[in-house]
Amino acid sequence: MMRQNNTILVVTVSFLLLLSTPALCIPRYGLTRVVVINDLGGGQELRLHCGSKDYDLGIRMLKPHQGFRWRFRPSFFGNTLFYCSVEWGAAAAGEVHWFDVYDQVRDEDRCTICRWLIKETGPCFSDEEGESGDSTCQSWNEIGR
């Protein structure tokens, strides 16, 4: 009886650990894709640095209208969050801004391809087809939020 209880405990703990590992999480809707595009204008390059609490996606220098994309499986627990910092001007050593590029609570039902256009005034979300009429712009996040 004791051995059976130990086996059940080990299987349960192993299953919970598997679910909590981001790369192995059971997806709710399969892969999600994020695309971030430099739409600053004026020929400015964009310095983009994206990541999550578990992954650093590295720093990218994006030329005008160039994009960076990645894909991932959202967490079974609904807590996936990716964020990006952006800067431009003076060889991309200007003022730093940041925003939540994917927040599972906000975006899970909104997009499977989450497309962002980076403008000086803030990031603009657009639908999967990139229709400009469906673009929603927001302000940059506050530091220390």
UniProtKB/TrEMBL annotation:
GO BP term, example: rejection of self pollen
GO cellular component, one term: extracellular region
Name under which the protein is recorded: S-protein homolog
Domain of life (superkingdom): Eukaryota
Originating species: Linum trigynum
Source organism phylogeny: Eukaryota, Viridiplantae, Streptophyta, Embryophyta, Tracheophyta
Family: Belongs to the plant self-incompatibility (S1) protein family.
InterPro entries associated with the record: Self-incomp_S1
The keyword Secreted appears for this protein: yes
Keywords: Secreted, Self-incompatibility, Signal
Pfam families reported for this sequence: Self-incomp_S1
Subcellular location: Secreted
UniProt keyword annotation of Membrane present: no
PANTHER family according to UniProt: PTHR31232, S-PROTEIN HOMOLOG
Signal peptide: 1-25
